[in-house]
Amino acid sequence: MNTNLFKYCLRLGDNSLILGHRLAEYCSYGPYLEEDISITNTSLDLIGQAEAILKYAALVENAERTADDLAYRRPEIEFYNVQLVEQPNGNFAHLIARQFFIDAFNFYLYSALKESTDNTIASIAAKSLKEVTYHLRRSSEWVIRLGDGTSESKIKMQEAINDFWLYTFEMFEMDEVDEELITKAITVDLKPIQDLWNKKVDEILVMATLTRPEDGYMATGSRKGYHSEHLGYILAEMQYLPRAYPTAKW
Q1: What digits encode the pLDDT tens for the residues 231-244?
Q2: Which CATH superfamily is domain 3-244 in?
């Protein structure tokens, strides 16, 4: 087993799985019907991405575990999603801020990963990019709409941007997993991705008449399986049925 490739797949898959679950919680809470459907469809896109990546992770691990086992039978310390995606939905502005930050990251990451020397990762990235392109366009438009909208929507959008800013640093952290896979051109250096992300964020915040927060304390630790208190509650809910009825057939 290539341990680093396995762990890298978990990082990608966990980001999509946990964010997909978070968005699913918002079903029926959208500001109007069409947007409520968009939120749910985005959740389904992310869960579909997670399924594809975790299936490949199970193949790489070659330990008789399935994608379902990886999703529903791992403890919190074995999840490697960034802490941003596990943060509570809050109000609609919070949902949009969180989505915009990760959408911009995913767009540039998958744009690069479609050139991966790993054919499976390249194909998953190419397929996911079609969905992620729409996700970024939608969340960007909402940041602008709320930021440059009423005085109340502007305040809430700025507060949401401020609240989630400390979780954005983790997306660009690299360690020995990345270093090995970069040498094989399986993944890419995240520094250029960060530069593109910063440019996009600045562009949208200017259009939204919002202020970019100052960097202060920035969350870290997800590369080692450390998380905020919120992930445990997500997993307790998400994993309950498969753990309670492990032999059930759906």
Answers
A1: 999 999 999 999 99
A2: Ferritin, core subunit, four-helix bundle (1.20.1260.10)
